[in-house]
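Quick one: structure for this chain?
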Amino acid sequence: MDRIAKWCLKMSYFYGRVTGVLNFEIDLRTGRPEVTRRATIWAAGLHSVMFVLLIYHSMTRNVMSNTWKSANYLHEYVFMVIASFRIVCVLLALLSRWSQRRTFIRIFNSFHRLFQHNPDIIKYCHRSIVSKCLCVTMVETLQLIVILALMGNRLTLFLGLRIWAISCLTAIMNVIITQFFIAMAIIRGRYILINKDLQAIIAETQALVPNGSGLFGSKSCLLADRLERIARSQSDLQELIEQLSKAYQGEVVCMSISYYLNAVGSVYLLFSLHKYGGSTDNWPMLITVSSAAYFLFYYLDCWLNCFNVFYLLDTHNNMVKLVSKWTLFQPGLDSTLESAFDNFNLNLARNPLKLQFYGLFEIDRVSSFALGNSLLTHSLLLIQYDIEHT
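Got it. Here's what it folds into:
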């Protein structure tokens, strides 16, 4: 599984280069990133051509009706709104990527050093990385199959270019989200390793016999030094999370809006397929099966994105609970060791781990539940409007 995860990381890098999201190169032998003219020209040219085709594609009002004969004015309006917002969101995300290219290079260097010093991290995040890459691959493949099957014999060169532009748009969104996902998974793996070391220190501390001997004092000092190193590692890790959140905040906000609109549009599309079911009777079985599988993997991908962050927050909370156990130790603990536990506990209390973006929202279970309620409400309002007016 570790080899598969490493292969997925390499494929994610190459996919980022192909889509232009990574506008710099990385030497895979040394891990050194470098800004090159080749990477800059490729990314800038690709994004320019893609956005020209997408803008033209969105301005064509009969796209939905040409694809689906039962489409009404509301379908056209919803399609235009979602398509326009997706283009704007991806454009803003890419502008953020270009303006912070040096910042992303520094963040990559930080993660590269983290991997070098802790190669076992991959063991604790390989399942998440492989699952994410599998879902993204299936979503993009199934979307392309459905689009090509719906086009049928009407596929022309220019229509093929527009389909390519839509596929690039989806790919860019997936690459950005996947990069953030992998970064969070790697940080969670490092947190798990720190928690294991912390559990070992707590077990050794509880086994100490406070008899005031020299051996007791030396062991206490050694444990205090180890605990201080863990505290510094946790502080550095949380600082990396803050840098990552700050660098990705524009992209995460844009991608969240795009995901939200896609989810509402998907619910409305499923309702429309049920309401105007006769229009899909002539669809080949390939389209029906591929569409069902697409929705399955799409929502599974959203679920993975959410719980990847939840698991990181849970791992941090486990660390807080572990450190707080020092107050239950038997009396007579060495003052140096007691001070190390106390300082670590206070630092965790003063600096709680929060993933905030522009102060607009915070990623946690409560906000995600509220977002789900909002998504359901807007989907129902859209369906109700369709029932009453079309």
